[in-house]
């Protein structure tokens, strides 16, 4: 089942613009989340004010991808105007709910980016969200680390997934995605 989901994400990424193209197509994965976090607080992407959400999965003990992605997003937003910086939010969803609390994940991502939030849910809710996003996560043999998807899911103001950004894409892809989607100039396809 997991292999089929991974294959679907790879095929969708290829077909719907994971590269440097700026075509935005509504993808059949991801989207809004309505759930209760581990602290008992309701979470809904639709209640967030920003027109663009950059969603990705990780964990605070991650040795490489997560800090590198947050650093890349931080450099990607440097050329944005102050107003453009209010048009997006980074949403970091923990794949390690045993060790990561909502407070820990938010503190972790805000170390890099003020306009971010960290989320941690129960294991069953996390599994449902991973399935909804067709995200891959597997605990490594040491039991302390996770192999996980490295996509940034770009959601529009209607909380539809409009683009998948690969970890190998340039920071300019992130910058341009925020600018284009937050400007209302992109219509759904």
From TrEMBL:
Keywords: Copper, Disulfide bond, Metal-binding. It holds the Pfam family SCO1-SenC. It comes from the Bacteria. The keyword tRNA processing does not apply. Signal peptide: none annotated. One of its GO terms (molecular function) is metal ion binding. InterPro entries: SCO1/SenC (IPR003782), Thioredoxin-like_sf (IPR036249). Cu cation binds at residues 62, 66, 148. Disulfide bonds join 62-66. Belongs to the SCO1/2 family. This is SCO family protein. It comes from Leptospira kanakyensis. The lineage of its organism: Bacteria, Pseudomonadati, Spirochaetota, Spirochaetia, Leptospirales.
